[in-house]
Amino acid sequence: MFSLIDTLFETQELDNNQLKQLIELEDNSPQEEYLFKQADKKRKEIYGIDIYIRGLIEISNYCKNNCLYCGIRCSNLNVERYRLSREEILECAKYGYSLGFRTFVMQGGEDLHYSDDEVCKIVSQIKEQYPDCAVTLSLGEKDKSTYQAYFNAGADRYLLRHETAIEEHYKLLHPSAMKLSKRKQCLFDLKEIGFQVGSGFMVGSPFQTTDNIIADLRFLQELQPEMIGIGPFIPHKETPFKDKAQGDLHKTLRLVAILRLLFPYSLIPSTTALGSIAENGRELGLQVGANVVMPNLSPTDVRKLYNLYNNKAFIGKEAVEGLSDLKLQTQALGYRIVTERGDALTWEDKR
């Protein structure tokens, strides 16, 4: 098993059976510890000890979709809905810039309230006011022409997790109106336009098998995204999956490590979901190859409303107010928070 990890470290290549062995390693085993060690080594080899911060602005919890796992699904009538105005979004960016953030992530449900023109105006105003910053959007599936308009307005990156690469599994997680083929096409459209693209999947989602996860990894190899975000599935009490078991911490960490070795140049966040299932989850993610964190810049009165799953962490080190503590904690782990844009190195090479 140690030789498999060394092979992955050196070549970024394993067959499906070998990947399965790594995904299913025993928790706290010497092999798992070695996998984590090698992933951290690879990250330091490429990116050093730098941890990039992104200012997360959750602009709306309205969503036209009805995904079975999501707390802001349109059929959940118990959600207190909100959406931020252009002025509120710009105020978040202003505050974040003063704290050193040089990437802003505008994330929301698929809210039809925001026209293409409105999103473009927000993006262009942020870029005009803060030309040294990157703007990331995570607003769901759109037509290619819409993505092009966002790009022309100055958006640099786009996050769209594919969630699962197998059609049969996708249908178990989403309503019939949503199609995996459309989601994949969106990702390839974004790549063609020139965005830095992020994708990813849930770990431990209902009905997921190891073969599903391997298919996810193979799809990511086809896509070659600049950013890969994964996190454990966490149920929400107002969804059909409310009684399903949450994703496993160790398996998620093993997959972060595997992703670092498979995609050495990708930017990999240690997600809020990791910090939500374990008090030190986000720190553990950083120790196994992740190199991005996304403190919440949203207005404090709406953070608890962007509730995708139960017990979401949105205060402390998960929020911008905890940035000082986060810096101290990462320093204690041997890393450092940096305030530059933090583009993926492969994308830098293309410029």
Topology:
Blueprint: H1 2-11, H2 16-23, H3 30-47, E1 50-53, E2 55-60, H4 86-99, E3 103-108, H5 116-129, E4 134-138, H6 144-153, E5 157-159, H7 167-173, H8 180-193, E6 196-199, E7 202-203, H9 210-223, E8 227-228, E9 231-232, H10 249-262, H11 272-277, H12 281-287, E10 292-293, H13 323-332, E11 336-338, H14 345-350
Parallel strand pairs: 1-10, 1-11, 2-3, 3-4, 4-5, 5-6, 6-8, 7-9
Helix pairs in contact: 1-3, 3-10, 4-5, 5-6, 6-8
- SS elements, strand count: 11
Q: Which runs of at least 5 residues are low in confidence (pLDDT < 50)?
A: none
Rg over alpha carbons? 19 Å
Proportion in β-strands: 5-15%
Rough shape?
A: globular
Number of helices: 14
* Helix and strand sequence: HHHEEHEHEHEHHEEHEEHHHEHEH
- Helix/strand/pairing class, anyone? alpha/beta
CATH class: Alpha Beta
- Relative helix content: 40-55%
Number of domains: 1
Strand order, main sheet: write it out. Answer: 2-3-4-5-6-8
Distance between the termini: 39 Å
Second rung of CATH, namely the architecture: Alpha-Beta Barrel
Instruction: Provide the CATH topology.
Output: TIM Barrel
**Average pLDDT reading:** 94
Major sheet:
6 strands, parallel
